[in-house]
Amino acid sequence: MNQPAPVWVVAGPPGAGKSTVADLLLAALEPAPALLDKDTIYGPFVAAVLASAGRPPGEREGPWYDEHVKVHEYAGMTATAREIRAHGCPVLLSGPFTGQIHDAHRWQSWVAELGGGTVHLVWVRSDEATLRRRLTARGLPRDAAKLAEFERFCASMRLGTEPAAPHHVVDNRLTAAAPLGEQVAALAGAGPG
Predict the structure, then answer these.
(1) Taking a C-beta distance cutoff of 8 angstroms, is the pair 77, 41 a contact?
(2) What DSSP designation does 159 have?
(3) Cβ-Cβ contacts under 8 Å for 3 (sequence gap 6 or more)
(4) Selection from 144, 145, 96, 140 nearest residue 121 by Cα
(5) Inter-CA distances, 123 with 9, 142, 165, Å
(6) DSSP 45
(7) Fewer CB within 10 A of the terminal residue: the chain, N end or C end?
(8) By the 8 A CB rule, do 59 and 149 touch?
(9) Could you give the CA distance from residue 161 to residue 140 in angstroms, rounded to a whole number?
(10) Residue 193's CB: how many other CB atoms inside 10 A?
(11) Beta carbons of 92 and 33 less than 8 angstroms apart
(12) What letters, b where the CB count within 10 A reaches 16 and e where it falls short, cover 142-159?
């Protein structure tokens, strides 16, 4: 049986810089993977689901969201990635994936759901000061609830805890020692890891 094409998972909290890291990786990898960004794929759909359920428009975390929305977002992204990879095209998934990356058993199960083979996890490191600054600066309505309960949001994102799954780290904190472009270039050149 042929191995599926590689998949890159760019994970981290909202506001950490996943989209920037994904863009840099897409420019550096050859062939360029197909990008599956959670917010691009599901943003308008999630807004409609929240409105029809009478939920707050900025809700993107919590038990109700996880049960009624997130589980379907991630299942759809996983099935789509598996199908694309099976046809020989590499994929780059961008989303928080907090539950998947912080539980080694759940990670292994997810890798199998993605079709197995080579799965690179790129964790975008952030901290409270960086997240608050970036979420405030981007000014998106979906970030209002995060900022209103910022400490709880940061705790749920497990900011200070590295993933339990094998991973590469890209430090995108305001205090990062190396520029983001240099880190991603080194990562793209390193290949499997």
Answers:
(1) yes
(2) T
(3) 116, 117, 118
(4) 96
(5) 8, 22, 10
(6) H
(7) N
(8) no
(9) 26
(10) 9
(11) yes
(12) bbebbeeeeeebbeebeb
Specify burial of residue 50 (Cβ count, 10 A radius: 0-12, 13-18, 19+): buried
CA distance 191 to 193: 6
Q: Residue 110 is encoded by which pair of tokens?
A: 């997810």
CB atoms within 10 A of CB 36: 21
In contact, 61 and 68? CB cutoff 8 Å: no
Q: Which helix (H) or strand (E) holds 11?
A: strand 7-11
Q: Measure the CA–CA gap between 147 and 99, rounded to whole angstroms.
A: 21
pLDDT tens for the chain, 193 residues long, are: 578 999 999 999 989 999 999 999 999 999 999 999 999 999 999 999 999 999 998 888 889 999 999 999 999 999 999 999 999 999 999 999 999 999 999 999 999 999 999 999 999 999 999 999 999 999 888 888 889 889 988 888 888 899 999 999 999 999 999 999 999 999 988 654 3
Contacts of 42 (CB under 8 A, 6+ apart): 73, 76
Contact present, 28 and 180 (Cβ < 8 Å):
no
